[in-house]
Amino acid sequence: MKNKTCLLLAVPLSLALIGVPSVHAAPDAESANSLYKKEKCNKCHSPNKSKDGPSFEKIAAKYKGKADGEEKVIKAMTTGPKVKLEDGSEEEHRVIKTKDAAQIKNLAQWILSH
User: If residue 83 lies in a helix (H) or strand (E), which one and from where to where?
Assistant: First the structure.
């Protein structure tokens, strides 16, 4: 009887979880790349080459294995902190205009996926 009860509970739970997206789902690269260009992030950043700002590869390496990496990338994109440029000068980081939290999170995840 216990086995039947467990099975009756396990099947609906399993079916419910099938529709739940993975916590670590891959970012939507096409959407992120579009936002990256629209917000003119490409003026200072590149996926694999340093410009005025670090490449996404350097950013990803800096935060690899750190739980707060995504949070820090989002903060840099949304609060305009002072940043040091490759030439040693400092300026305020450009704030992206979109207020869509899902788009911002996706962009941060895409940057960190490099």
Answer: strand 82-84
